[in-house]
Design a protein that fits this description.
This protein is mainly β. The protein contains no helices and 8 strands. The protein is about 0% helix and about 65% strand. It is globular, with a radius of gyration of 19 Å.
Amino acid sequence: PGLGSIWDKTAMEARIDPAQDQTRFGTSLSKSVPLDGGQYALTLQNGYNVVQQSALPGVGGRFGHSYGTDQSARLNITDTGTSLTAEQSLSSADEKWLRKIAAEQKLFDGVSIAGSISETALGPLNTSLTAAFKRTW
């Protein structure tokens, strides 16, 4: 459940990975709001994570930590099966906001097409166009 009337869903994750001498903690908060009688739905999501890198005593290795945050807004258009997404993420490794816009259209019987344009840490844009088929029986 979410935090009162502010968020619909709250997720928390804590992991210890002894193989990589790593501890990870993350959280995600989301809120969905129906618009125009349910014809549209807007979902807002925020995520945060921290990774602590340590070393085994006597073995050496890397010490340090990194953090990241991401934010997204997704508009679903129920009648047409279309969704539009705008998101941005920031990590201590990149030290700058990286933005992405995406669209997905459900065509018929489990067939959909999606496209996105996103910034990369090195500068050039990353573009993607995919088609998918999904059937459950």
